[in-house]
UniProtKB/TrEMBL annotation:
<comment type="similarity">
    <text>Belongs to the iron/ascorbate-dependent oxidoreductase family.</text>
</comment>
<keyword id="KW-0479">Metal-binding</keyword>
<keyword id="KW-0847">Vitamin C</keyword>
<feature type="domain" description="Fe2OG dioxygenase">
    <location>
        <begin position="188"/>
        <end position="288"/>
    </location>
</feature>
<keyword id="KW-0560">Oxidoreductase</keyword>
<dbReference type="GO" id="GO:0046872">
    <property type="term" value="F:metal ion binding"/>
</dbReference>
<dbReference type="InterPro" id="IPR027443">
    <property type="entry name" value="IPNS-like_sf"/>
</dbReference>
<dbReference type="Pfam" id="PF03171">
    <property type="entry name" value="2OG-FeII_Oxy"/>
</dbReference>
<dbReference type="InterPro" id="IPR044861">
    <property type="entry name" value="IPNS-like_FE2OG_OXY"/>
</dbReference>
<dbReference type="InterPro" id="IPR026992">
    <property type="entry name" value="DIOX_N"/>
</dbReference>
<protein>
    <recommendedName>
        <fullName>Fe2OG dioxygenase domain-containing protein</fullName>
    </recommendedName>
</protein>
<dbReference type="Pfam" id="PF14226">
    <property type="entry name" value="DIOX_N"/>
</dbReference>
<dbReference type="InterPro" id="IPR005123">
    <property type="entry name" value="Oxoglu/Fe-dep_dioxygenase_dom"/>
</dbReference>
<dbReference type="GO" id="GO:0031418">
    <property type="term" value="F:L-ascorbic acid binding"/>
</dbReference>
<dbReference type="InterPro" id="IPR050295">
    <property type="entry name" value="Plant_2OG-oxidoreductases"/>
</dbReference>
<keyword id="KW-0408">Iron</keyword>
<dbReference type="GO" id="GO:0016491">
    <property type="term" value="F:oxidoreductase activity"/>
</dbReference>
Amino acid sequence: MDHDELVSSWFHLHSSVPFSYVQLPEARPGIVASGKNIPVVDLGLHDPSQTLKQILNASQEYGFFQVINHGVPKELMDDTLNIFKEFHAMPAEEKIRESSRDPNGSCRLYSSREVNNKDIVQFWRDTLRHFCPPSGEFIQFLPQKPAKYRELFVKYTQEMRTLGLKILELLCEGLGLDPKYCCGGLSDSPSLLGHHYPPCPEPSLTLGAPKHRDPTLVTILLQEKDINALQIFKDGEWIVVEPIPYAFVVNIGLMLQIISNGRFIGAEHRVVTNSGIARTTVAYFIRPTNEQIIEPAKPLISSGVRHKYKSITYEEFLRNFMSKGSDFEPELLL
Ligand code: OGA
Ligand code: NI
């Protein structure tokens, strides 16, 4: 990767948005719904059946919720956001060096310029992405700078695995499946993404991330207080996800939409930019291993309910999703 492929390397030199970052008029950030919010799920309720009800309603109606009383220490949440801020603030050469130890790409720094076809519009964001399987494989390829990066990464991904499995168990129980249904290969290949959205001179023309669904079972997002940038698309309107301090934003991904045979919504969302302040987020992607077959859970269709989706290996899904994006989604339907 070249230094100037990173948005953080050049954004400060511009007083307007370069043409390749200007979105088509229909994709630009516009009006958002006022007074609407996504549901909150309290994981610390005395009555677990109430928690189950909250999480089920949220997953069926919105595919998005914020979790509180989740048990992850506040200090670890602060430290993790800060270490990613420090990483993205390092000189470009250092960022590239620290993120390129694995020739097979288990750790990667990229911006949309590298991922997308050069002809399509780019996004105002840099991302550091790392695989973090429970086996601990790939740890030797993690950045060694900032100094605390590895230690925090290990602690944080352990907490995310615990929280993620708890959420998946509730969701599977709610579907009437074995609570452990998603706990094996379906969730054994997680990744962690540290996104950095630099300030943008013309936020009305750009996006930090396009409208998309995640290629995950579930995504757990840590975002900063006080910056409204994440929006979800529901019933034809954009709803802002207003950060609740020390809550996590959780969303259902396309894989769980398929496994649940469409009962849970893999909700569409996007990220807008702002001119004042950089925004950092940390996304934990709960993903299947490549060879896993993704299909509606058998117990959900044995009772005469119609299959809505084809069976596909995660590897094949990803290959198509990476090249065709959301255009591939209709092909998943039966
Ligand atoms: C993602 C995502 C939202 C954000 O990583 O898929 O949607 O606010 N991130 O960074
Ligand atoms: Ni997403």
